[in-house]
């Protein structure tokens, strides 16, 4: 065994592969070299014997080589216990290490964790300003701009059609029944098909599936336009009889497919594409991208509804529908081209696998569903989503969000559009009403930030809900006080609804942040899609009631039910805010107002 020490020199070595000539007696002294690992002069190293102290555990995690350069080495012949002192062949060379240079800078052998901690503290890190600048810079800015343009083209057509079809159908018959039936079956298809389509998209390439869904949505819109134009050319005795015609059945199916494709495209854009383009580890850039997408959607709603409202006030419905069809056909190749450009400018980031094979195909999920087990896979997805949704820690905030979907009357939706059309209101005014409601959403993106700074995130949500409930209470009271035969009370009624959208959209923005904070990231997509299904279920229930009470004279009753849903949402949220659990306190411990 060789035991050694070095005097008055510096070392540069690695351990565990060390060899010294056994009979060499002296190595000449030269200039000392730099060191990488330093040991105190009082520590003895046994290179062949097993480690006997606790510090030697740090050597288990790495393997080093040993070389000694430019060192004073002196050997002393020492006999072992059972060998003769005169037997030179059996003696063991002993090397004594001593260093006067290392005494002032000696470092003990570090344990594994301590060594890593000390090593990391010497690495250069970005300053706070540099980190903020990096977090605010998108990972693929050029691709993100092309993505914005694609969303602008698609949302403009979708928002125009969302206003066009209920207006055109409401001109056919003086009843809310056709619009309510279409809305009911559309929501029913989303409830059933939403989780299944989401699962299929998770296992499909991004760009081809996105282009395919855009083509399906455009085809369904064109088919709906053809059916409504055909309906305007065929006279019908009553609204109930029109429901029995083949054109209406085709219209319902096409409308359901169009809405389901739109929901799938929206989820893909907001939950997947924008995250990849902005960067998952760049929160400021992602927040700005989310805000831009929200404003694009609202601005498209303003432009689409206003444009079709102006056209409908000057031309007949068939001409306006033909214009909408031309816009649909021209926008499809534009969206496809911008989608391809987005992927090219982002260096093919959209072609990457969505997750590893072990993540995508777990034992619980099973294989990709085929034609034989689509129903079974869909039922399992719905069951799992409902269980996780009920067990989420911020369930009251989500329930308040869902209850707002019961409000299908006091909102710029299909029923309100049909009601105002049948009241004989000018289409340009109806389009302006929808546009102003969307503008309140744009204003809410700025006001919500001020509310959060002043009241905290949770109290800001309560302020938005209470503000909406108060204004809608006044609006319903005005409507119930007497028939809105004159234009002034009707316009005041609509103005109150427009202002109430400010509170609704404020809670929509703040509520999204509450849900993002309280829901684990591993379950965000599952719980989010399930929440959309639950909200669609709530909306379909109200549309079912509207099917029964389809006469325009029952609009006041439907408005009262919508008001009660908003009041109930405010009560649930405020009650949760006043009686939080310990888990909820820990989740929102950063909120100084909570």
UniProtKB/TrEMBL annotation:
<feature type="transmembrane region" description="Helical">
    <location>
        <begin position="399"/>
        <end position="420"/>
    </location>
</feature>
<feature type="transmembrane region" description="Helical">
    <location>
        <begin position="176"/>
        <end position="198"/>
    </location>
</feature>
<dbReference type="GO" id="GO:0005381">
    <property type="term" value="F:iron ion transmembrane transporter activity"/>
</dbReference>
<feature type="transmembrane region" description="Helical">
    <location>
        <begin position="555"/>
        <end position="578"/>
    </location>
</feature>
<feature type="transmembrane region" description="Helical">
    <location>
        <begin position="457"/>
        <end position="478"/>
    </location>
</feature>
<keyword id="KW-0472">Membrane</keyword>
<comment type="similarity">
    <text>Belongs to the ferroportin (FP) (TC 2.A.100) family. SLC40A subfamily.</text>
</comment>
<dbReference type="InterPro" id="IPR036259">
    <property type="entry name" value="MFS_trans_sf"/>
</dbReference>
<dbReference type="GO" id="GO:0016020">
    <property type="term" value="C:membrane"/>
</dbReference>
<feature type="transmembrane region" description="Helical">
    <location>
        <begin position="210"/>
        <end position="232"/>
    </location>
</feature>
<feature type="transmembrane region" description="Helical">
    <location>
        <begin position="244"/>
        <end position="268"/>
    </location>
</feature>
<keyword id="KW-0812">Transmembrane</keyword>
<keyword id="KW-0406">Ion transport</keyword>
<feature type="transmembrane region" description="Helical">
    <location>
        <begin position="432"/>
        <end position="451"/>
    </location>
</feature>
<keyword id="KW-0813">Transport</keyword>
<dbReference type="Pfam" id="PF06963">
    <property type="entry name" value="FPN1"/>
</dbReference>
<feature type="transmembrane region" description="Helical">
    <location>
        <begin position="320"/>
        <end position="341"/>
    </location>
</feature>
<feature type="transmembrane region" description="Helical">
    <location>
        <begin position="490"/>
        <end position="507"/>
    </location>
</feature>
<feature type="transmembrane region" description="Helical">
    <location>
        <begin position="527"/>
        <end position="548"/>
    </location>
</feature>
<comment type="function">
    <text>May be involved in iron transport and iron homeostasis.</text>
</comment>
<keyword id="KW-1133">Transmembrane helix</keyword>
<protein>
    <recommendedName>
        <fullName>Solute carrier family 40 member</fullName>
    </recommendedName>
</protein>
<dbReference type="InterPro" id="IPR009716">
    <property type="entry name" value="Ferroportin-1"/>
</dbReference>
């Amino acid at each position: 065994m060789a035991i050694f020490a070095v005097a008055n020199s510096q070392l540069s070595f690695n351990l565990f592969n060390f060899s010294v000539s056994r009979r060499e007696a002296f190595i000449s002294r030269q200039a000392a070299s730099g060191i990488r690992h330093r040991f105190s002069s009082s520590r003895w190293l046994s290179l062949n014997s097993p480690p006997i102290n606790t510090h030697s555990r740090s050597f288990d995690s790495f393997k080093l080589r040993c070389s000694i350069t430019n060192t004073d080495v002196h050997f002393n012949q020492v006999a072992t216990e059972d060998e003769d002192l005169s037997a030179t062949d059996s003696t063991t060379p002993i090397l004594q290490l001593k260093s006067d240079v290392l005494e002032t800078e000696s470092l003990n052998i570090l344990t594994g964790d301590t060594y890593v901690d000390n090593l990391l503290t010497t690495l250069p890190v970005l300053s706070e300003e540099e980190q903020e600048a990096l977090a605010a810079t998108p990972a693929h800015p050029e691709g993100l701009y092309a993505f914005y343009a694609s969303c602008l083209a698609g949302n403009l057509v979708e928002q125009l059609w969302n206003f066009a079809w209920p207006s055109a159908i409401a001109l056919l018959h003086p009843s809310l029944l056709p619009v309510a039936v279409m809305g009911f079956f559309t929501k029913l298809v989303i409830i059933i098909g939403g989780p299944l389509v989401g699962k299929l998209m998770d296992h499909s390439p991004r760009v081809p599936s996105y282009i395919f869904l855009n083509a399906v949505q455009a085809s369904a819109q064109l088919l709906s336009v053809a059916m409504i134009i055909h309906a305007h050319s065929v006279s019908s005795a009553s609204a109930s009889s029109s429901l029995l015609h083949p054109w209406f059945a085709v219209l319902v199916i096409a409308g359901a497919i169009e809405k389901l494709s739109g929901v799938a495209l929206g989820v893909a854009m907001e939950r997947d594409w924008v995250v990849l383009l902005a960067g998952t580890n760049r929160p400021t850039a992602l927040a700005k991208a989310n805000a831009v997408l929200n404003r694009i959607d609202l601005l498209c709603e303003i432009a689409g509804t206003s444009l079709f409202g102006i056209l409908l006030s000057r031309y007949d419905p068939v001409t306006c529908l033909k214009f909408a069809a031309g816009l649909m056909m021209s926008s499809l190749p534009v969206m496809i081209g911008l989608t391809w450009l987005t992927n090219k400018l982002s260096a093919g980031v959209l072609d990457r696998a969505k997750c590893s094979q072990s993540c995508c195909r777990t034992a619980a999920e099973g294989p990709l569903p085929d034609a034989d087990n689509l129903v079974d896979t869909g039922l399992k997805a719905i069951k799992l989503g409902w269980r996780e949704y009920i067990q989420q820690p911020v369930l009251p905030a989500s329930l308040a969000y869902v209850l707002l979907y019961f409000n299908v009357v006091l909102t710029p939706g299909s029923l309100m559009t049909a009601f105002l059309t049948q009241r004989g209101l000018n289409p340009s005014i109806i389009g302006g009403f929808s546009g102003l409601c969307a503008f309140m959403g744009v204003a809410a993106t700025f006001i919500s930030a001020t509310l959060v700074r002043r009241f905290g995130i949770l109290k800001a949500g309560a302020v938005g809900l209470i503000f909406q409930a108060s204004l809608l209470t006044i609006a319903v009271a005005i409507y119930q006080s007497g028939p809105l035969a004159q234009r002034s009370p009707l316009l005041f009624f609509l103005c109150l609804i427009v202002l109430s959208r400010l509170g609704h959209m404020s809670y929509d923005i703040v509520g999204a942040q509450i849900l993002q904070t309280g829901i684990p990231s591993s379950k965000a997509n599952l719980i989010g899609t399930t929440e959309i299904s639950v909200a669609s279920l709530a909306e379909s229930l109200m549309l079912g009631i509207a099917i029964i009470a389809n006469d325009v004279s029952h609009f006041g009753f439907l408005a009262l039910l919508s008001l009660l849903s908003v009041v109930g949402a405010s009560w649930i949220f405020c009650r949760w805010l006043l009686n939080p659990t310990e888990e909820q306190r820990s989740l929102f411990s950063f909120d100084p107002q909570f």
